[in-house]
Amino acid sequence: MSQEPREHIPDGLEVVQTNGEEENKEDIYGDRLRVDLGDVDKGKRADAMGTTEPIDTTDVVQSKRRTPRALVPFRIAFQTVLPHGGALATGFNLASTSLGAGIISLPSSFNLSGIVMATVYLVLIATATTYALYLVAKVVEITGYRNYSQATRHILGRGTDIVIAILMLILCFGGSISYIIAMSTLLKPILGHPGSPAYLKTKSGNQLITSMIWLALMFPLVMPKQINALRYVSGLGVLFIVYFVICIVVHSVQNGFHNPEIRSQLVTMRYGNSALEGLGSLLFSYMSQINGFELAYEMQPRSVTRYTVSSAISMAVVGVLYFLAGFFGYADWGDRVKDSVLVLYDPVNEPYILVGYIGIIIKICAAFSLHFHALRDAGYHLLRLHVDTVPYWQHCLLMLVPATLALICGLFIPTLNTVLGLLGSLCGGTIGMIIPPLLIMYCGNFSLRKVGIVNYAATYLLLIGGVVAVVFGTSTTIYSTVGQSFV
Length: 487
Prior knowledge:
Structural class: mainly alpha
Helix content: 55-70%
Oligomer: single chain
Number of strands: 2
């Protein structure tokens, strides 16, 4: 006799057998969630509680947070332009997650892989990222889970969530370190100007200013519980990145393009291991998937089509900016681009570059906080905590520890490319390109007849491409790093 398929059991509910019938028994976690509902910042907690109707907590939030009357027009204007969970806000957050430390290392990636190979990598990774985000949205629509750890635990089985949470912690913590390194690198040409105080020209002076920026700008942005709270700073940061890319193009046209020596250094295509050396950094540069679940979950109204369109536009814009920054940055400096391109400019004597540097500071702060949202979700999953039920003061203390560790590590790790290469290849390839196909395959109803030939083939291609990227990207990064250590 065939057995009827069991219905999906939401997280926080366990099934017990009573007189041959299954009934939903709410556990202690569900009780806590109901009691602490007033602490929810904003949003729908329906699927976490196992109910079918969404629970609107807007009144609760408004009763606890009253906007001063003078600021009401500004709030209305901001909500109109960038509404909470809207398609534009989602696109800005996805772009902001990608556009960070990766863009300042793009010229060196073009130098490592060659112009043609780097461009091919950009197109392939952008396409794969967009499709992976589509799969993430489908998983959220089917299951209602809001992060990777929840989804892998209930779809792929116990234990896989621990592995994914650890990989996410490594990826996001390493990414946060890279933003501290990028901030320190950004300050070097400014603090090293002849007119700067002698102490600020030293390494300890640079570390002091970096720490002050972390305390004043980066750490406060880690505190919000909901990722959509960062949509304004994300939008501002993306606009500044666009401006900085324009600065790179203008500077290249005015300088490097007219230098025959630099033009002779440009390599169209590299072969063998050299062609793969920039792959890891490029994979890291497109890691929007780390926030993909939460952004899809918070989208209002939640729609796979709207989310996919928003993702596609976002990745297309990111891809164009990456190509312009990578190609023109490489064409401007040639073989001198070994790590971050920021150290090669003179922002003090070129005011338009200085404005771009200030914008990069804002963008790095936004990207740092977005990485910490994914890190927080993974850490809370390992600790069996939920962001909506943790008191705000406790949430701040829990975020203080990894944020401080990221600062300390970032101040003492000298190079950026090694960090980005290893993180992008190993962790980024696994989380961004391998896990989404596996999740959609094991959600059920995944067959050639059900999903069609295009989705069926694309899902398997993404999975195979992820495995190839992890194996070759990681091994090449380790090989080149070890080789350079013995030169």
